[in-house]
Amino acid sequence: MAKTPAPARKGRGRPQNGAPDLSKAQIVATALRLIDEKGLEAFSIRSVARALGCYPTAIYWYTPSRHVLIAEIITVVLRDVLPDAGLDWQDWLRALFTRYRAAIARHPNAAPLIGVTLVSNASVDVDLVEAVLAKLHDAGFRGASLINAYNAVIGAMVGFTTQEFAMLPPDAESLREDLAGFPDRIDANRHPLLAQLSGQMIGAAFILRWQNGATQPMTGAFAMYVEAFVTGLDRLPREGGAASS
Amino acid sequence: MAKTPAPARKGRGRPQNGAPDLSKAQIVATALRLIDEKGLEAFSIRSVARALGCYPTAIYWYTPSRHVLIAEIITVVLRDVLPDAGLDWQDWLRALFTRYRAAIARHPNAAPLIGVTLVSNASVDVDLVEAVLAKLHDAGFRGASLINAYNAVIGAMVGFTTQEFAMLPPDAESLREDLAGFPDRIDANRHPLLAQLSGQMIGAAFILRWQNGATQPMTGAFAMYVEAFVTGLDRLPREGGAASS
DNA sequence: CGGTCTGTTGTGCGGTGTACAATAAGCCCG
DNA sequence: CGGGCTTATTGTACACCGCACAACAGACCG
């Protein structure tokens, strides 16, 4: 509430209670709350410190850098994406993709963090890796094909949803106005399908939208994407194949 | 070369030749060159100005904001992704994905810009939209299914490659060291497949890598991903389906 | 020849991540 | 019980960022 540091307790030094004022969990939770409520741009070390009523440098006692803090936010967001292990491999993949999307939908403003920072960093979720490998092994994938399938699955899981919830430029309003007049500018001879479908696509389709999945979800497209990928995977050869690098 | 503004010409006012010193194309090209050569983090309005030997605010004469400049960089990177229109719809989609990936591979450090900023903004590439719609119409998709398929295709095109070329944290070295000792920490009882495959996966697979597609391309995984998606798309119902929103 | 347009130089503000010093309270050990 | 070590924080400082805005000089046009 106060202007800049807003210290609940004044003066330097260790707090008097014996217990710390801050904690890593509290910092991560506050950061995520800021992202959820005010958008990704409102998140910074300093804004988290402001919200917690401490100096920015106090944050650094619990986390070594902005990047690591982001990594910790990601692991919180991606909690509980693993589906029930009892499912058939195809249903399991469908559930995995859906649960991943649901996790992002719960914190849409955090989506770019994951897409940009690579799924990796920080704590490797070994259970996720093993589970994907296990289900693909169930499906019959072996050797280099198994690893390629693993990468294809992770890429597919993260890829679509990251796009769906991608951040928009801050001048979304001008983008909207731009697209409002767009149908009139289409040359029906050169772009007949676009001319015919623009009414349904403006504001709802990639490249022609000004809002992201938080307000304009692409549920139908996502379902089709998952279905195409999973059923397509079933029709692929499952052995051999070159390694990636 | 000079310290801060490094003006080739001194003093204020309009240049004497009659021709401007700068141009939008030059600014975009310089920005992209900086990104390619020194990484995305080295790109800023101020760094571009430094490279051009002008004041940062001179950049604003040609572009209204950082976001718009980024949008212009994106359109340059994504030039020439459209494949030959004569191809069969499935081959055309394969070619589209491959050409998109090749474009990103030419400027890997720019990958996060596209993934984050949404494919949209700035100049809508109507030819791309129309071409995708046309090929999916060729495939028999109609109505809501056509639009869903369009979104699935764009999401698939951008999604995987964005992940493959996602930026890594600046402390990649410590990540590498961390992952070097990773195989020894795997409990072979709890994670048997990971224990067996970690040797092939460390450094080359999502979540277990410390480099991105610029140095560790996932060619095999990408091929499998494309193949699964395209052949899967062929087996989907092509009419009806609910709209997304 | 005066005014307006153009394309710069320059100044300034509020923001950022984070390195580093200062400091005070709790804790442990002799 | 007292001195030093550890802990958790306040403060200061620096180099960077995007960008708003003023100043201004040359070109161009009536």
UniProtKB/TrEMBL annotation, chains A, B:
Residues 1-20 are annotated as: Disordered. PROSITE patterns: HTH_TETR_2. Signal peptide: none annotated. InterPro entries: Homeodomain-like_sf (IPR009057), HTH-type_TetR-like_transc_reg (IPR050109), HTH_TetR (IPR001647), Repressor_TetR_C (IPR004111), Tet_transcr_reg_TetR-rel_C_sf (IPR036271). GO terms for molecular function: DNA-binding transcription factor activity; transcription cis-regulatory region binding. Residues 44-63 bind DNA. Residues 21-81 form the HTH tetR-type domain. The keyword Nucleus does not apply. Pfam families: TetR_C_1, TetR_N. The keyword Transcription applies. GO terms for biological process: negative regulation of DNA-templated transcription. Keywords: DNA-binding, Transcription, Transcription regulation. This is TetR family transcriptional regulator.
